[in-house]
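Re: the request from the purification team.
They wanted to know what the chain is likely to look like in 3D before they choose a buffer screen. I agreed to run a prediction and write the result into the notebook, where they can find it.
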Amino acid sequence: MPPDTSYVIAAVLVAAAVTWGLRALPFAALTPLRESGTVQYLSTRMPAGVMVILVVYCLHDLPVTEARAAAPLAALAVTSGLHLWRRNALLSILGGTTVHVILASTVFAR
């Protein structure tokens, strides 16, 4: 037996309202936070902090005495050098990734 038409319409309207509310909520919550000094401080400091955490996490058990450590370390050096030189995150990420993939798949392949 198919569901009643009014039930289907009500379900669709409730789902649409919940979806709209969940999408609008972050914007409504963000408006008062834009003036916060803490949020402004975090917006300038978080990107570098997140990158440091990612680097430490990725390299924390890297055996630097083994040859296979050369690929990620070279990629880190290229990424850092490109970013210091050009100040372009996309170029830095692409350059470092390219170096790592090339070295890991050819020179230092297991």
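For the purification team: The helical segments are 5-33, 37-59, 70-86, 89-107.
Please add any questions underneath this entry.
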